[in-house]
Amino acid sequence: MSAARPVEWGDVAAATMDGLAVVDRAGRFVQLNPAAVALCDARVEADLVGAAAPFALTKEAPACPGLLEDQSDEQVAYWVTGSGARREFAYRARNLPADPGLKVVSFRDVTDEGHRHRRVAAIARTSVSLASEGSLGSTLDAVAAQIVRTDGLAGVQILILDSTGRELRLMGSAGLRRSETFLDRLLECRDRGARLVMLDTLKERSPIVLPHRWDEIRSDPAWEPLHDYLGELAWDSFVSVPLTVRGRAEGVLNAYFAPGQEVGTRTLEFLVAMAEQAALAVDYATLLQRERDGARQDERQRLARDLHDSIVQQVFSIGMQANAVGVLGTRGLPVPADSVRHFADEIGTLARTVLADLRAMVHELRPSSTAGLGLEETVRTLVRSTENRTGLDFRLRFGRGLDSIDPELAEDAYRIIAEAIHNVVKHAEATFATVRLGVHGHTLTATVTDNGCGLRDAMGSPVPPEGHRDVGAGTEAGAEGYGLTTMRERAERWGGTMRIRSRAQTGTTVRVVVPLPVQVPDSSPGDPDSSANTPLTVRL
């Protein structure tokens, strides 16, 4: 058997699937094998010789990992091809024995692998965030931000359905500018015949991918009201993914892809996974709300028992004493003064006890009565009571449309205003306050302004005149205090925002803006299924 002919190392380098390159001290390519030329997306080796290599050769190579360590001696570099694509290379570099001034670099393309790792990390971080105590709005904002950062998308929106399945609210977003007129423009586009893909996604309960959607929209006159707004975002393709919980569609995740990005299978799988995380957050919030509703019901039952065990019994005793006095009066005989004083003392004692118990229960229950009186009248009643109790002077400004808002939203709006007024009385040292409340377009706006000392610092001292404070929706709960955190969470529950502007000596303004629903049919014009005519509300 004849011995095999020795193989030239040049042939091996030319045939290997990893890139091999020789780089000089200046960090420039000297020589490359065919795999390296292909990885760098060049036509021939001569196009790269003399060009700056992406490898950091001045750093020492990491030490070899131990048996139980998960560390690689590979380093990572990034290369932008002539077409603008960004590639991620994992590489190793060693000195060339024949010439210490040169280094030989072995590298491979790990763009997809790195992307997968980042996506898995994003899903893990999102899962951790679901366990935090943040509001649903802040959680979904975090989910949207994770998607944008991980995949480099232009923007993401997350919209959820309410318990009736007839109302969509925009609860999370990243990459898109907030616009109070976006909803009005979107509905105007819908009236012009534009297709709202997210409604199709809800109906079909499966992802919808539209390549080059922006080209279609900007050339479609039906979308003209949103051309300027959507043109601010550098995007191309569009994907809408349903948020599904136990077989039910709970909302949609809309993804806007940057130009040049492809919507591949792995990308779609990542969006579906993140949509599942968002759906879990929605489901958790729903379960939490049910638990809170159950707690309220339990509290009502406890109060009913307390009323029966204490106040009802005491009032019954008062009635018995009054009946006894009546019986004595019917006899026509003189009633001894001692008996009258005895009855009066007992009735007075019982009445004072009842009054004290009632005051304690009223303070504990703190009813708003928005369902019966309406939001405007309930706020008026609260302000009158506060004026009588504290002497603080109030000015009220109410707009139209308050009687048409959702009762649960009215309750949360009242609680926000009540907490803001409580803060004015307790902390502001103010003599005057203004409450403004009204509906403008499709937005509920509530503002409470005072002429007090402004916000206090952690030591309880007023913020100095130059210390302007502007507290937005994303402020950490620990920096706000329980009352402000509760107010912010009530606003975010409806997709709204709360901002606080404060200056020492000039007072504080609390402003809450909550978008209101508008009816939109869930079937496109001419759709054969449009006979159902089921309205779907979109809140953005």
Summarize the structure.
With 540 residues, the chain is an alpha+beta fold. It has helices spanning 9-15, 34-39, 111-130, 136-151, 182-191, 197-204, 213-218, 227-231, 265-330, 337-365, 370-373, 375-390, 407-428, 477-480, 482-493, and strands at residues 19-23, 29-32, 75-80, 86-96, 99-109, 155-161, 167-174, 208-210, 238-245, 248-256, 393-398, 432-440, 443-450, 469-471, 497-503, 507-515, 518-521, 535-539.
Characterization of this structure:
The strands form three sheets. Strands 8-9-10-6-7-18-17 form a seven-stranded mixed beta sheet. Strands 11-12-13-16-15-14 form a six-stranded mixed beta sheet. It has a five-stranded antiparallel beta sheet with strand order 2-1-5-4-3. Residues 63-71, 463-479 and 522-540 have low confidence and may be disordered. 43% of the residues lie in helices and 23% in strands. The chain is elongated. The protein has 540 residues and is an alpha+beta fold. Helix 3 (111-130) runs antiparallel to helix 4, helix 3 (111-130) packs parallel to helix 9 and helix 12 runs parallel beside helix 13. It has helices at residues 9-15, 34-39, 111-130, 136-151, 182-191, 197-204, 213-218, 227-231, 265-330, 337-365, 370-373, 375-390, 407-428, 477-480, 482-493; strands spanning 19-23, 29-32, 75-80, 86-96, 99-109, 155-161, 167-174, 208-210, 238-245, 248-256, 393-398, 432-440, 443-450, 469-471, 497-503, 507-515, 518-521, 535-539.
